[in-house]
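<purpose> Linking amino acid order to shape
<body> The protein record starts here
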Amino acid sequence: MSALNKEKLKEKFNEHPVLWPALKKGQEVQSRLKYRYFYKWPGHSKRASIREINLEFASACNLRCKFCALDHNKPKQNMSLLVLRRFLDQWLVDFRFHHVEKINLYNGGETLLHPKRIEMLRIIKEYRQIALKHDLKFPKISMLTNGMLLRPTLADTILNEELVDEIGFSLDGGTPEEFEDLRVNAKWAPFYKNVGHLATRIREEKLPVRLYGITIVPEPKPLTKAWMHPEFQQLSMLFDHHELRRLHDWGGEIELDDKPKAQKSRGCDLLLRQLVLLPNGDVTVCCNDLNSKGVVGNLWEKSLWEIYNSAERRKYLEFIDSGRKDELELCKDCMSF
C-alpha cells in the first residue's frame, strides 16, 4: 500500500468501528506476504523492501511538545556532510535501493536546527542530478518541520533552489491557544505567517512542491476541521493533504489517559518499508524510535545493505511475523497503521 493511499484511507475511515479494524487486518496480511517475498522467497538477495529512508539532520528540537517522546537530555548531534555523502554514495551504487520512493528529512529532532541545513540540501540535490545523468529515478525529498524556523528568507532559498519536493508542518490543537499549549515554545502568529508565506508563493507561482499538515486532535474533539479556528481552517485549505490524528504513545514511551490497546499484529509496514539514519551514522528500524533504542548498525561500520539484511534487523521482522511482538521492547505497544 502506497503512502498516498494510506493517507486517503486514514482520512476517510480513521476511528470507524468496523472498517478501520478491517483495514488493519488487510494491511497485516499484505505485510506478511511482503516479508516472505523480500526476505524468504527465491531471489530475495536481489531486492530490498525499503521504500522510505529518514535522515535526521539534527537530534535536538526547539520545542517541548507535551505528547512527544523525544529525550531532550540525550546528546545533541548534527549529521556531518560526510555521513550524508556516505549514505547517498551507497544509495547510488546499490541497485537494490533504487526503489526507495522517498527520503524523509525528519525523525526526533527539528531538521532546520542544523547549522548547515542549506548545504545539506544542496548535497542531496547534487546527487539527484548525478542520478538523472545515469537515468536513475531519485527519491522524492520530503521535509517535516515545526515551522518556527522556516522564516520567509529561508523558505525563499529552499523554493528558489528547488531543494525539496514536499514540506510538511505539525500544527496541533485546532486553535491558536491549544497549539501553543500543546507545542510548548511554539507561537502561533509567526508559525501562521511562515506557513502562509510559503504556501502563497507555491500557489501563486505554481511551484512543484507538495504541502501537507499533521494535526494532533486531543479527545473529546472530533477528527474533523469544522470546529477548528478559522486560521487553522485557512491553512488547511492551502495544504494538499491535512491529516488529523489522535495522540499515540510512541510505542509505550509516554503515558496516555485512556490508552488504546495495541493490536496483536503479525505484520508491520514500518519495519518493512523504513530505515532511519541518525546524525552519527547509526541506523534504527523505524520513525517511531525517537530515542535510538532500535539501532541495528552504523553506516561507518557496515554498508547500507549489510545493515538492512543484518541479524539484528531481521530479528524484528521475524518476531513480528511469528506473533512474538510482545518480546520486542520497541514494538510491543506500537499502534501504528
User: Anything to note?
Assistant: The mean pLDDT is 91. Strands lie at 52-55, 102-105, 140-145, 166-170, 210-216, 241-245, 274-277, 282-284, 295-298. Residues 48-254+266-327 form a domain with the TIM Barrel fold (CATH 3.20.20.70).
